[in-house]
């Protein structure tokens, strides 16, 4: 905390607890062999990989050539979105890395560095970045959503974009770059009615992004 200059402004209760731990007054975090864990059993029912695999199975059953790209996706959301948009373009124009009809699934959790005063979430910002990258080849769609149904401080789980998103935004007088600069992806997609609304799902295994190229 001192290294990141957080100690000075930390609540006094936190300072006392950490100091007591450092002095040995308060016990350190229990280790795996601690008696407290003798009656504790953990069972993983689902995780990011199982959710991504289920998505791939559904898309494969629909007749699409399917690729699970990653289950550890991370990075700045708008940059990851640009990469996914570029990947969709590659499939659409070159049939690489998989031929059409194609579906690519990527799971993980990206990051948004907030510099503007807008409203949004990492999935919505990711798709805004993707929408700006998609070329005009028909039949390309990119979507991303949080598995808990809540993307950032919004009511949306995520958003969806296709090759018409940019032109539809222009018809409404919306400039995607301005919304991206303000981290205002939520209002951008709300105006286009392209938000994904699921409501709280009661679970959370990171985010799922999907590219479909027909």
List the helices and strands and how they pair.
Blueprint: H1 12-22, H2 48-61, E1 65-73, H3 77-94, E2 102-108, H4 122-133, E3 140-146, E4 158-162, H5 165-171, H6 176-181, H7 185-192, E5 195-196, E6 207-213
Helix pairs in contact: 3-4, 4-7
Describe the structure.
The protein is 36% helix and 17% strand. The protein has 214 residues and is an alpha+beta fold. The protein folds into two domains: 1-42, no CATH class; 48-213, MOFRL domain (glycerate kinase, domain 1, 3-Layer(aba) Sandwich), CATH 3.40.1480.10. Strands 1-2-6-3-4-5 form a six-stranded mixed sheet, sandwiched between helices. Strand 1, helix 3 and strand 2 (102-108) form a beta-alpha-beta unit. It is globular, with a radius of gyration of 21 Å. The N and C termini lie far apart (50 Å).
CATH topology tier name of the largest domain: glycerate kinase, domain 1
Q: Determine and state the CATH class of the largest domain.
A: Alpha Beta
What is the N-to-C succession of helices and strands? HHEHEHEEHHHEE
Give the terminus-to-terminus CA distance. Answer: 50 Å
> Architecture of the largest domain, CATH level 2?
3-Layer(aba) Sandwich
The number of domains: 2
Q: What kind of assembly state do the chains in view correspond to?
A: single chain
What would you report as the Rg, rounded to the nearest angstrom?
21 Å
Low-confidence stretches at least 5 residues in length (pLDDT < 50)?
A: none
Q: Percent range for helical residues?
A: 25-40%
